[in-house]
Target: ATP-dependent DNA ligase
Amino acid sequence: MAPITEVEGRRVALSNLEKVLYPAAGFTKGEVLHYYATVAGVLLPHLRDRPVSFLRYPDGPDGQLFFTKNVPPGTPEWVTTAEVDRTEGPTRMVLVQDLPSLMWAANLVTEFHTHQWVAGAPDEADRLVFDLDPGPPATVVHCCEVALWLRERLAADGIEAYAKTSGAKGLHLLAAVRGSSSERVTEYAKALAVEAERTMPRLVVHRMTKSLRPGKVFVDWSQNAARKTTATPYTLRARAEPTVSAPVTWEEVEGCRAAGQLAFRAGDVGPRVQDYGDLLAPLFERRRAGVLP
Model:
């Protein structure tokens, strides 16, 4: 039987703490749970009120990976859930609202993925996102060049962008928006992606077609669709190393000259939070939310 730990008055079963999940780093499940507990103060605001999809990898990144959208079997009754209308019909999804829920979810060994809207307002987007994905031999260095162009282009429309690593190869740009539907935000994001390709045709592609992507940065605008999700800030990723989707400063983006400069692992994030706080905290300030033109 899994040992029971009390977290803020809730009983949470934590299992297989010595199991190595990231063999390349010798990183165990216990260390996964410790990481999430350590960053809970900055992670939870990005999860709160957002229906969560889990990418589960209980045997590590080299094992079976499966995406869970519905409430998993065995979910404790104290974990908050919400009914969400999806294209395939209504479904009930988890809301990670507090530390006990976070520890329960982390015990499932998960990446956290969230929508660009909150429960109760699925028709209104409060986030705009671009996923910048480099096609080899392009790297995150090229993503940074595209990100800087997109930052200036968004600023011209009164929208302030913030950056984080994807935790994989690329970069994510996020902005707070208000007064728009997911459909409208998607249209706007696509138009900017097309404009970026027109401006930087040797560097950018806005279509997903794989044959077009080698050596270019795919500006994925589609994650703004209401049904789509993006890796949540501070989530661990199912990669060879315990990499994290970590917020970065614009100075770091501007100064990126090698792919390794913007690769952050679990152990790097706590010190960064101590130094910077949550670099994405302005996303929660409604006065800074942009209005699409």
In short: The chain has a mean pLDDT of 95. The longest strand covers residues 124-134. The radius of gyration is 19 Å.
